[in-house]
Each structure stands twice: as C-alpha cells, then as structure tokens.
Amino acid sequence: MPENHIDQTLDSLSEWSKWITGISLFSASGCVSVLVTKGVGEKNIVNIKLAILFFLFTVVIAWILQLVIAERKQRDTIPAERLVIFSYNILNPLLRTLVFLQILLFLLSVFYLARWVWKFPAVKPVQQVLSVIYDAEQINAVTEPKKTQDVVYLYPGDFH
C-alpha cells in the first residue's frame, strides 16, 4: 500500500497508463481489421489511418511513461541499488510532459476515430443487379432443350 501522496499519484498514473495501453492497442487493432477486411472509402481513409497512428503513439508514450514512473519510484531506494536513466532535474518535468502527451494523443485518436465513424455512409449501399436483356431474335433462336430423365437443362449456349 502506498505510504504517501506521491506514491499514490505515481501508482494512479501507472494504472492509467496500463489501461490506456490496453484500450489503445485494442482500438488500433480493431481499426486495422476494418481497414483490411471491409475497406474504407477513399475520402474517409485519412481519418482511420490517423486514428491508428495516434493510438499507436499513445501506446509508445505510455510505455515511456511507465519507465519514467519506475525510475521516479526507485529514487526512494538505497542509492547503490538505483539505475539512473534521467537526471532528477528533468525527471518531474518529463513525467508531466509525458502525462500531458499521453492524454493529448489519446484524445486525438478518439477524435479521428469518431470522425471516421461520423463520415461512415448512413444509407445502404445500392446493390447492383446484373441482368441480361434478350431481344426477340435471341429468344426465337433457342434450340430444343436437352432432355435427361424428365429433367430439362438449358445451357448458356442455347441462347445464341
């Protein structure tokens, strides 16, 4: 259990970062599957690609944030057991910047995902019906049907 407010804050940021990683990876993979399987309209493809890109940037920032939080937490340990990656002078401003970036990138990805959904076609696509219209000469030129055990088969060559 956290001992003070700083530890509680760092634990909360760490948990948020883990959740945002899961949500972003799930959303990015869903967007990619839609992009690959169903396809996206040419005018709307930019929105889904930007959503995927920002979801992935959010994941990268979340991983870096986890690293910074881990280093920030170990500052309270014995100095000989520390692994120092960032100096203490830049650690707290870096932590704030990463949290801000993570939230901003996630909101941008949600924005572009919502834009893509909003521009989704609201009407059902028109089904194309393939029909062949025969003129009277083609209908009259039909040869005798071929009979096999009381079943009549008409072949495409019969309509020439």
H/E series: HHHHEE
Provide the helix percentage. 55-70%
Our Rg estimate from Cα atoms comes to 31 Å
By helix and strand content, what is the structural category? mainly alpha
Widest sheet: strand ordering: 1-2
Strands, count: 2
Main beta-sheet strand count, sense and barrel state = 2 strands, antiparallel
Count of the separate structural domains: 1
Overall pLDDT score: 76
Gross morphology: elongated
Through-space gap between termini? 86 Å
Q: Enumerate the spans where pLDDT stays under 50 for 5 or more consecutive residues.
A: none
Determine the strand fraction and express it as a percent band.
under 5%
The number of helical elements comes to 4
Molecular structure report:
The structure is a single chain. The protein has one domain (5-118). The chain has four helices and two strands; from the N terminus they run ααααββ. It has helices spanning 5-37, 45-74, 88-118, 136-140, and strands at residues 146-148, 151-153. A two-stranded antiparallel sheet has the order 1-2. The model has no long low-confidence stretch (mean pLDDT 76).
Layout of helices and strands:
Layout: H1 5-37, H2 45-74, H3 88-118, H4 136-140, E1 146-148, E2 151-153
Antiparallel strand pairs: 1-2
Helix pairs in contact: 1-2, 1-3, 2-3
What's the gist of this structure?
With 160 residues, the chain is mainly alpha-helical.
Give short descriptive properties of this protein.
2 strands, 160 residues, two-stranded antiparallel ribbon, mainly alpha
